[in-house]
Structure to design on (129 residues):
């Protein structure tokens, strides 16, 4: 039998027109530190974990539209970020440069748009506020 190779998800990477602006936003939002930085690539690391969030410059970046119509640039993925206090987390994200999306499909989740246009969700896990 052939040995199954090991797979480990090392990072999720977001494209951006300005890698530094987007990395700064998530570094401050999540409280993560910079693990690696190059001119067009920045990687953030979660404290005490192997998880990473990376950002790369894409000169032809097109902002996704959410919710997207038939001819709009679709979002390809989004981040789900658990928080302990939804109203204050939304307030903090907005202060750092996010905006609240016009369309909110759920009462207990807030969809926000980061400075590059990527949608992300903030939520309190079951049993929270």
């Amino acid at each position: 039998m052939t040995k199954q190779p090991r797979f480990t998800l090392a990072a999720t990477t977001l494209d951006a027109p300005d890698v530094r602006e987007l990395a700064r936003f998530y570094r401050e939002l999540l409280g993560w530190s910079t693990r690696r930085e190059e001119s067009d690539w920045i990687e953030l690391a979660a404290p005490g974990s192997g998880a990473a969030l990376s950002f790369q410059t894409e000169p032809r970046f097109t902002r996704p539209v959410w919710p997207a119509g038939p001819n709009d640039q679709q979002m390809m993925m989004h981040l789900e970020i658990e928080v302990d206090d939804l109203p204050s987390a939304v307030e903090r994200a907005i202060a750092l440069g996010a905006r609240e999306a016009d369309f909110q499909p759920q009462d207990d989740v807030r969809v926000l748009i980061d400075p590059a246009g990527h949608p992300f969700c903030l939520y309190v896990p079951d049993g929270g506020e």
User: Anything to note?
Assistant: The mean pLDDT is 91. Residues 78-129 form a domain with the 2,3-Dihydroxybiphenyl 1,2-Dioxygenase; domain 1 fold (CATH 3.10.180.10). Residues 13 and 114 are 14 Å apart (CA to CA). The chain has two helices and eight strands.
